[in-house]
Amino acid sequence: MYQQMIFVNLAVNDVAASKKFFTEVGYTLNPQFSTDDCACVVISDTIIAMMLSKQRYADFTQKEIADSTKTSEALLCLSAESREKVDELVDKAIAAGGTAGKVQDYGTMYGRSYDDLDGHTWEIMWMDESEVQG
């Protein structure tokens, strides 16, 4: 069965620093699609983050590129398999130079967030699926 993928494209100031940051967080880079002006960060089989230099990012839009340290362009939320995995991933991001964000604890939902080196906000969320009503 076809699995739809998402490619999140984000403008960054320093592609090499982004490569280092996201590998320290625990993700891998796809070397086939990573260059000096693009880091192809593999988050999962269906989620790819493309960290593009601002010059390269501008090739894909006619709009002004947001300064993500001052303006919220999006909230990127990823699931985690447990509360511990939420903490592990966010702690790695902070150790790699990210900035800690909010903690949200609702008992059956737990999340933390961080801003990466360019101010993009990443939320990591665990949800007790036995509590989700379908």
- Protein structure class: alpha/beta
Shape label: globular
Q: Report on the biggest sheet.
A: 4 strands, mixed
Overall pLDDT score: 95
| Radius of gyration, CA atoms, in whole angstroms | 15 Å
Question: Largest beta sheet: what is the strand line-up?
Answer: 1-4-3-2
Give the beta-strand count. 8
Quick take:
The protein has 3 helices and 8 strands; from the N terminus they run βαβββαβαβββ. It is of the alpha/beta class. The model has no long low-confidence stretch (mean pLDDT 95).
Show the helix and strand layout:
Layout: E1 6-12, H1 15-25, E2 28-29, E3 38-42, E4 47-53, H2 54-57, E5 75-79, H3 83-95, E6 99-105, E7 109-115, E8 121-127
Parallel strand pairs: 1-4, 5-8
Antiparallel strand pairs: 2-3, 3-4, 6-7, 7-8
Helix pairs in contact: 1-3
3D architecture notes:
Helix content is 21%, strand content 35%. It is of the alpha/beta class and 134 residues long. Helix 1 packs antiparallel against helix 3 (83-95). The radius of gyration is 15 Å and the shape is globular. The model has no long low-confidence stretch (mean pLDDT 95).
Which key phrases capture this entry?
alpha/beta, 4-stranded mixed sheet, 8 strands, 21% helix, 134 residues, globular, single chain, 3 helices
